[in-house]
Specification:
Radius of gyration: 19 Å
Number of domains: 2
Largest sheet: 9 strands, mixed
CATH architecture of the largest domain: 3-Layer(aba) Sandwich
Shape: globular
CATH superfamily of the largest domain: Alpha/Beta hydrolase fold, catalytic domain
Length: 326
Amino acid sequence: MPLIDSPYKPPVYLPGGDLQSIIPAIARVVQGVQYRRERIKTPDHDFIDIDWVDTTSTKVALVIHGLEASAESAYIKGMSKALHVAGYKVAAMNLRGCSGEINHQVRSYHSGSTDDVETVIHHILRNTACENLVLIGFSLGGNLVLKYLGERITIPSIITAAVAISVPCDLHSCAIHLDSRIPFLYRDRFLRTLKQKAASRIHNLPFELNHQQLKKISTFLEFDDYYTSQLYGFRDAVDYYVQCSSKQFIHRITIPTLVLTAKNDPFFTSSCFPFDECSLSSKVYLETPEAGGHVGFCVDLFSGIYYSEQRAVAFLALEARQSHIA
C-alpha cells in the first residue's frame, strides 16, 4: 500500500472537523453544471436516474453520492464540474429514491447495494461510447465503490481507476459513533428523511412495522435493526453492517484506487482508517490528511476550490498516463 503524505491544509476560518464538514455542505453553490437526466430500468422493474454532464469524450466518470444526498448535492456538482473540465463525460448516479421521485419498488438503497452500481455500469458500457470508465464515490457512495471493486471476482476491464472519499468502511463503528454524538449535528438530519421515506412505504413492507414504532426510532442502530436489515434480508443491524462494510474487500481490489479520508472526520473512529487492509493491496493508495472533515476538504470557500476534486482529477490523470506508458 502506498501511504500518501497529504499536502492538504484547511482554511484558517474553518477550524475543526465539524465546521470543515458542515459549512461547505450548507454554504457551497456550484454554478455551470448542466445535467441531462436519463432514467434506466432495473432488473426488478424499478428505475434509477442518472444525471449526465455530456461531452464527446470516450472517458466516462461514474460519480456516486452519499447517504440521503443526490446528484444535486454541491459536492457531486463540484466533482462533476472538475471531471468535465478534465475531459470526462460524467454520469452522476442518483441512488434509488434520491432523485426527487419515490421509486416503484419497496426497496431503495443501502450501504451495500452494489447490484444497482453494477446495473448502472452495465448500462453505461452498453449504451455509451466509453473506452475508459472511472468510479468516484463519496461517503456511502465510496463504500459502494470499494465494495463493488473488491467483492467481485472480475470487473469489466474498461474500469481503470477509482477514488473513494470519506468512506465509512466500518459501518458498525460509524453507527455507534454517530449515535453517541450531538444528535442534531448529523444523525437527526439523516434519520428525518430516512424515516419519511420508510413511512411512505410502510403499508407495502414485507414485515411488521407501524407508524408508532417508526416514530420511536431515534438512532441509526434502531433504524437499521427495525427497518434496513428486515427489508434487505439481514439478521439484524450488526449483520447488515458486517456484510456491507467495504473494509473487508479492500485487499482484493485490483485497479488503482485512491482512498481519501480526513483524520478529523467527525463521522469516524479509528477503525475507518484501513491501514492494515490497504497494506495487503499494491493498488490501493490511502491518503489521510490531518484535516478535511467529512466530504469537506475545502481549500477556499469563497473561490470554490476543493482539495478532493483537485486530488481526484490529479490521481486519475496520473493513472491514465501510467497505464498508457505500460
